[in-house]
Design brief:
Layout lengths: L1 E8 L11 E11 L2 E10 L11 E6 L5 E6 L1 H111 L8 H17 L4 H107 L3 E2 L6 H6 L2 H45 L2 H49 L12 E2 L1 H135 L1
Parallel strand pairs: 6-7
Antiparallel strand pairs: 1-2, 1-4, 2-3, 4-5
Helix pairs in contact: 1-2, 1-3, 1-7, 2-7, 3-7, 5-6
C-alpha cells in the first residue's frame, strides 16, 4: 500500500546533527483519487539520504516493511493538480447544477404560465367557434328567410300578373258593357245570359284577388326571426366591443410595461456607470498599494543594508585591536570600590564572558551548518528536474528563513559579547593599576565606533518606524480594497441579476405583445365576420320591409278591387231586376 510520509531525523550531538532517519506516515492511499489521514512512524532503511522534513512516497508490504520509497514532489504536484482540477470541476458542476435548477424553475413557471394562457386561449377559441357556429346558423336562417321572401315575391308577382290579366279582361268586358249599355240606353235592361256572363267574370276577378293573410303571417314570422337574429348579432357586437376594449387595455398595459423596462434599463446603465467608477477607484487603490509595496521593499532593502552595515562595522571592530565599541561604565565607582569586591566582580565578568563566548561559538557553528545545508539544497536545485525543484525551493526558503533568524539573533549576541569584553578589559585595567601593576593608559590609535553604531542604529530605527507607518497604511489600503472589492463583486452580481431580470421582462413583454397581437387579430377577424353578416341582415330586413310595404299597397288595391266588384255585382243585380220587371210588364 502507498503512503505519504515525512522524513524525520533523530537529533544527536550538541548541534543536533546526524541521527537515524524515520518515516512519519501522514496519509494513506485508499484508491486512485482517495487519500485518508494516517499517523504512524516507522524506521527508514539505511540507504535513505533525504533531508529532515522531506516529503516522500513510501510503499509498504502487508507486514509494514518498506518495499520502496521515492521523493513525492512530482506525484504530490500531480495529486494537487488533480485535486485542484476536481475542485474546479466540482465547483463548475455545482454552478451548472444551480443554473440548471434556476433554469428548470423558470421553465416550470413559464410552462405553467403558458399552460394557463393556452387554456384561456383554448376557451376563447372554443367560445369563438361556438359564436361562429351560431353566426353560421343565423346566416343560414337569414338565407332561408331570404329564400322564403323570394318565393313570396315570386308568388306576389305571379298573383299580380294574374290580377292584371283579370283586370284587363274586366276592363274589356266593362267597355263592351258600356258600349252595349250605350246601345241599349233606352231599355236599360240586362238579359239573363249577359248577367250570367258578367257574374262569371266578376267571380273570376274576385277569385283572382290574391289572399294576403298567409303572406302577412309569413312576413310577421320573418320579422320575428330577423329580430331574434338582430339580438344575437347585437350580442356578438357587444362581445366584439368587449374584446376590443380588452385588447386596448392590454395594449396600454404593454406600453406601461415597455416604459418600465426602459426605465429599468436606464437604471441599470446608471448603476453600471457607478460600477465602472468603483472599478476605477479599485484600480487606483491597487496601484497605490503597489507603489506602497514597492516603497516597503525599498525600505526593507535599506533597513537590511543598515543592518548589514551595522554587522560589518561590528565585524570590523572584532577583527581589529585598534577599533573598539566603547561602553559607558562608572569609573569613579570602580576606583572607590573595595579591592576584593572589584577582584570578585572582575572574576565573575570573566567567567560570564567565557560562558557567553562558548554559546556564541556554538551558535556560529549552527549558522555554519545551516549555510552548508543551504549550499547543499542549492546544489540539488541546480541538478533537480522541474517537479522536484518546487519542493526543493520551498525547503531552501525555509532554511534561508531559519538562517536569517539565527543570524539576526547572533548580531545582538555578538554585540553583547563585545560589550562584555570591553567592560572586562576596563575592570582588569583598573584592578591591575590598583594592585600596583604597571598598565598603559590606552593603546595608541584606538578608535571607538560606538557613536557610529548608534547613528546607524538610529537611522535604521527611523526607517523601521517609517516602514511600520507605511505597512499600517498598506493595511488600511488592504481594508479599503477589500471593501471596494466586496462592493464591486456585490454590485457586479446585482447588475448581472438585474440584467437577467430586465431581459426576462423583455421576453415576457414579447410574449404578451404576441398575445395582444393575436387578440387584435381575433378582433379584426370577428369584425370581418360580423360586418358582412350585419350588412346582409340589414339588406334582408330592408327587402322584407319593402315587401311589407308592397303588401300594404296590394291590400289596399285589393280592397278597392273588391269594392268595385261588389258595386258591379250590385249594378248587375239592379239591371237584372229591371230587365225582369220590363219583361213582366
Amino acid at each position: 500500500m502507498l503512503y505519504l510520509a515525512e522524513v524525520q531525523k533523530q537529533k544527536s550531538g550538541f548541534m543536533g546533527g546526524g541521527g537515524k532517519a524515520e518515516f512519519k506516515l501522514i496519509a494513506c492511499q485508499r484508491s486512485e483519487q482517495s487519500w485518508s489521514a494516517y499517523d504512524e512512524t516507522i524506521a527508514a532503511p539505511d540507504d535513505v539520504t533525504y533531508n529532515a522534513g522531506a516529503i516522500v512516497m513510501v510503499e509498504l508490504t502487508g507486514a509494514k516493511q518498506v518495499r520502496r520509497h521515492f521523493e513525492a514532489g512530482r506525484q504530490l504536484v500531480s495529486i494537487l493538480q488533480n485535486f485542484s482540477k476536481l475542485q474546479e470541476k466540482s465547483k463548475t458542476q455545482e454552478e451548472e447544477i444551480e443554473q440548471w435548477k434556476q433554469s428548470l424553475t423558470y421553465q416550470s413557471q413559464e410552462l405553467n404560465r403558458r399552460e394557463m394562457e393556452m387554456e384561456a386561449r383554448q376557451e376563447q377559441l372554443q367560445q369563438m367557434e361556438e359564436d361562429f357556429e351560431r353566426l353560421d346558423q343565423q346566416r343560414q336562417d337569414i338565407e332561408d328567410t331570404r329564400q322564403e321572401v323570394e318565393n313570396l315575391r315570386e308568388e306576389f308577382e305571379r298573383k299580380s300578373q294574374e290580377l292584371e290579366g283579370a283586370w284587363a279582361h274586366l276592363n274589356g268586358e266593362v267597355r263592351r258593357f258600356e258600349e252595349r249599355q250605350a246601345e241599349q240606353q233606352q231599355s236599360a235592361t240586362l238579359d239573363d245570359e249577359k248577367a250570367t256572363t258578367l257574374r262569371a267574370l266578376l267571380d273570376q276577378i274576385s277569385g283572382a284577388v290574391a289572399p294576403t293573410e298567409s303572406v302577412r303571417e309569413q312576413l310577421h314570422q320573418s320579422f320575428e326571426i330577423l329580430d331574434r337574429q338582430q339580438q344575437a348579432l347585437q350580442h356578438h357586437w357587444q362581445g366584439l366591443e368587449g374584446s376590443r376594449s380588452s385588447a386596448q387595455q392590454r395594449q396600454s398595459e404593454l406600453e406601461q410595461q415597455a416604459q418600465t423596462i426602459r426605465d429599468a434599463w436606464q437604471a441599470w446603465y446608471d448603476a453600471q456607470e457607478n460600477l465602472e467608477h468603483l472599478k476605477a477607484e479599485l484600480r487606483s487603490q491597487q496601484q497605490a498599494l503597489s507603489l506602497k509595496q514597492d516603497y516597503v521593499k525599498a525600505l526593507e532593502a535599506q533597513i537590511k543594508a543598515q543592518a548589514d552595515l551595522h554587522r560589518n562595522v561590528c565585524f570590523l571592530a572584532d577583527g581589529s585591536d585598534s577599533i573598539t565599541i566603547g561602553v559607558s561604565i562608572d569609573l569613579q565607582a570602580l576606583e572607590a570600590m573595595p579591592l576584593d569586591d572589584l577582584q570578585r566582580i572582575t572574576q565573575d565578568l570573566e567567567s560570564e564572558l567565557e560562558k557567553n563566548s562558548k554559546f556564541v561559538n556554538s551558535q556560529e557553528e549552527e549558522l555554519t551548518y545551516k549555510q552548508e545545508e543551504i549550499d547543499e539544497i542549492q546544489r540539488r536545485i541546480d541538478e533537480a528536474n522541474d517537479f522536484d525543484r518546487l519542493q526543493l525551493e520551498n525547503e531552501l526558503k525555509d532554511e534561508q528563513d531559519g538562517y536569517e533568524m539565527l543570524n539576526e539573533t547572533l548580531v545582538g549576541q555578538r554585540r553583547n559579547l563585545r560589550e562584555r569584553e570591553a567592560i572586562l578589559k576596563q575592570h582588569k585595567s583598573i584592578l591591575a593599576r590598583r594592585q600596583g601593576h604597571a598598565v598603559g593608559e590606552g593603546e595608541p590609535g584606538e578608535i571607538d565606533l560606538k557613536p557610529v553604531l548608534n547613528q546607524i542604529e538610529a537611522h535604521r530605527q527611523a526607517m523601521q518606524d517609517e516602514l511600520s507607518q507605511v505597512q499600517a497604511t498598506i493595511q488600511d489600503i488592504h481594508g479599503q480594497l477589500e471593501q471596494l472589492q466586496t462592493q464591486v463583486d456585490q454590485q457586479t452580481s446585482h447588475q448581472i441579476a438585474q440584467r437577467e431580470e430586465v431581459r426576462q421582462l423583455e421576453a415576457n413583454l414579447s410574449d404578451q405583445r404576441a398575445a395582444v397581437a393575436e387578440l387584435w387579430g381575433k378582433v379584426y377577424l370577428y369584425e370581418e365576420l360580423l360586418q358582412p353578416t350585419q350588412d346582409g341582415y340589414d339588406s334582408l330586413r330592408q327587402t322584407v320591409q319593402s315587401i311589407g310595404d308592397l303588401m300594404s299597397q296590394f291590400q289596399e288595391a285589393s280592397d278597392y278591387q273588391l269594392q268595385g266588384i261588389t258595386e258591379m255585382q250590385q249594378m248587375i243585380e239592379q239591371l237584372t231586376s229591371q230587365s225582369a220587371e220590363l219583361a213582366a210588364s
